[in-house]
Amino acid sequence: MTKQMGLDLGGSFTLPGTSMIVNRMGYGAMQLAGPGVWGPPRDVDGAIAVLRESVASGVNHIDTSDFYGPHVTNQLIKRALHPYPDGLVIVTKVGARRSEDKSWTHALSRQELIDAVHDNLRNLALDTLDVVNLRVGAVMGPSEGSIEEPLTVLAELKRQGLIRHLGMSNVSPEQLAEAQKITEIVCVQNFYNVAHRGDDGFIDDLRKQGIPYVPFFPLGGFTPLQSSKLDAVAASLRATPMQVALAWLLQRSPNILLIPGTSSVKHLRENLKTATLGLPSEMIANLDSIREGAVQ
User: Fold this and answer.
1) Is residue 13 part of a domain?
2) At what angle do helices 224-237 and 241-252 cross, to 10 degrees?
């Protein structure tokens, strides 16, 4: 897999306290599993092609979890990319599991976390995981409460050499501060997009600390009116709404890293072109007006 030359992936960012340098345009593997993020994909060869195309295009940050499928996306990543190229950073997450009814439930006990780390190691065929995010909170945001107990378990596994670095997902600024008393945190992954801006201040604080913020669901939770405004900007630029949403995130702050997911090579290429999509200042102002509470 040879990197395609000349593809701009939004610049790069060094994870704090590490030698890991990732391009700002990454790839999220969740959509590679079957419908509802359950079971294998309809087109296994197509999923493998997406993974190989992403790395060939210069993506060196892949977001995954063993509870996607479950086990499916990690097994696909291993099949497509192992032995992994130098410089590829695979970020996984623990703290949830899939029940037989396909629901998502918390899995934050000591044994569940240990088992999850070993599941990721096994299915990715790794001896050490690059970055493990502790997923807490609700599906779309943080919940109140201490994260000390589960994070302490992961910090122990880090000391044992099973994990290189730790991140957090679905957390508040207060929970991050608590986490940083336990171990170094190299990234935060939360729900955020042009319409849902609750983490604006959090992103700015993280930038000052040199910590990347990795938003998920770039088109999640839009009202019809918000979607229509985004569609209008996209049409004026001859771009897709997803491209505009991603381009807005790239310009929002230099510490934002993107992990858009897709099971289509065509859509992958569209997403990666986002880094070259310039947003004029008047369009940024128009997009800023669709945030929660701003749309009339």
Assistant:
1) no
2) 90
- For the chain, give the percent of residues with pLDDT over 90: 94
Query: Cα–Cα distance between 290 and 184 in angstroms, integer?
Result: 35
Q: Reply yes or no on whether 192 is catalytic.
A: no
What does the alpha-carbon distance between residue 101 and residue 242 come to, in Å, rounded to a whole number? 31
Query: Which tens digit of pLDDT belongs to each residue from 70-87?
Result: 999 999 999 999 999 999
Selecting among 68, 84, 192, 213, the annotated active-site residue is: 68
Sign of CA dihedral 60, 65, 71, 72: negative
Q: State the residue range of the domain holding 132.
A: 19-220+255-262
CATH of the domain at 159: 3.20.20.100
Closest CA to 290 of 193, 190, 191, 189: 193
Instruction: Give the global pTM.
Output: 0.96
Task: Give per-residue pLDDT as tens, 137-182.
Answer: 988 889 999 999 999 999 999 999 999 999 999 999 999 999 999 9
- Give a yes or no: residue 9 inside a domain: no
Q: Does some domain include residue 173? A: yes
Paired sense of beta strands 104-106 and 96-98, if any: antiparallel
Between CA 111 and CA 117 the distance in angstroms is 10
